[in-house]
């Protein structure tokens, strides 16, 4: 297994918000954004692992700003930490001003993917080494997010969630 960097997995998708993808307030429908983020993040996880990947959990989504009809939306996904077979993927969503082209952060999310073989069994993935300050912050916090996700899914006892417990002590 080789060591890879978050930049090796980056997936950037730019698209427009069209009628039929909006809610009654003419803003992007939340489920549509979730699907777009899932697609970009799964490509990032596939680029990191070189395997088929499946979404294991959606760990966090913040719909901070509404995204109006006609907006140009850029979704940037990168693997933020690799474990044994699972990968945390961080997704940043930007909208751009039509006249100035300036990009404003609208939303962010964190998804977990698992690399699997043709029969759906988890397989080991490359290690990930963060490089920038932001990548290091996200990498360091990923283990407690994994533990929280596993505790909520009933797959880990809260007693074993050492990183998570350390937050409250
Ligand atoms: C995700 C899946 C492969 C995990 O299989 P499993 O039998 O639970 O396998 P394991 O218990 O060995 O877990 C595999 C990895 O997933 C991680 N994982 C499982 N559930 C998780 C959750 N809710 N949150 C975070 N990580 C999770 C485990 O911690 C483990 O990570 P590691 O190998 O890096 O330590 C399996 O549950 C599955 O196929 N789910 C359906 C996926 C799907 O259809 N997604 C939507 C369409 S893409």
Structural summary, described in words:
With 169 residues, this protein is α+β, with helices and mostly antiparallel strands. It has a single domain (3-130), classed as Thiol Ester Dehydrase, Chain A, CATH 3.10.129. Helices cover 30% and strands 34% of the residues. It has helices at residues 6-9, 30-49, 133-152, 162-167; strands spanning 3-4, 11-16, 52-62, 72-82, 86-96, 103-116, 127-128. A hairpin with a 3-residue loop joins strand 4 and strand 5 (86-96). The chain is globular. 32% of the residues are buried. It binds coenzyme A (COA).
Name the helix and strand elements from N-terminus to C-terminus, one letter apiece: EHEHEEEEEHH
The overall pLDDT average reads 95
- Radius of gyration, in angstroms, nearest whole number: 17 Å
* Helix percentage range: 25-40%
Would you identify the CATH architecture?
Answer: Roll
Indicate the low-confidence ranges by residue numbers.
none
The overall strand count is 7
The CATH superfamily is identified as: Hotdog Thioesterase
Strand content: 25-35%
What separation lies between the terminal Cα atoms? 36 Å
- Structural class from helices and strands? alpha+beta
CATH class: Alpha Beta
Instruction: Summarize the biggest pleated sheet.
Output: 5 strands, antiparallel
Please tell me what the overall shape is.
Answer: globular
The number of helical segments is 4
CATH topology: Thiol Ester Dehydrase, Chain A
| Unique bound compounds | coenzyme A
Count of spatially separate domains = 1
Strand order of the largest sheet: 2-4-5-6-3
């Amino acid at each position: 297994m080789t060591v890879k960097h978050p930049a090796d997995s980056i997936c950037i998708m730019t698209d427009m918000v069209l009628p039929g993808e909006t809610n009654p307030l003419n803003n992007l429908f939340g489920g549509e954004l979730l699907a777009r983020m899932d697609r970009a993040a799964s490509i990032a996880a596939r680029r990191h692992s070189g395997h088929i990947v499946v979404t294991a959990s959606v760990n966090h989504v913040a719909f901070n700003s509404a995204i109006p009809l006609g907006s140009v939306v850029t979704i940037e996904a990168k693997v933020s930490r690799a474990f044994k077979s699972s990968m945390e993927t961080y997704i940043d969503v930007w909208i751009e001003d039509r006249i100035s082209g300036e990009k404003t952060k609208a939303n962010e999310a964190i998804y977990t993917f698992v690399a699997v073989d043709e029969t759906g069994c988890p397989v080991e993935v490359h290690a990930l080494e963060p490089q920038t300050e932001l990548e290091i912050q996200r990498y360091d916090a990923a283990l407690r997010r994994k533990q929280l996700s596993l505790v909520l899914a009933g797959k880990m006892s809260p007693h074993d969630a050492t990183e998570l417990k350390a937050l409250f002590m």
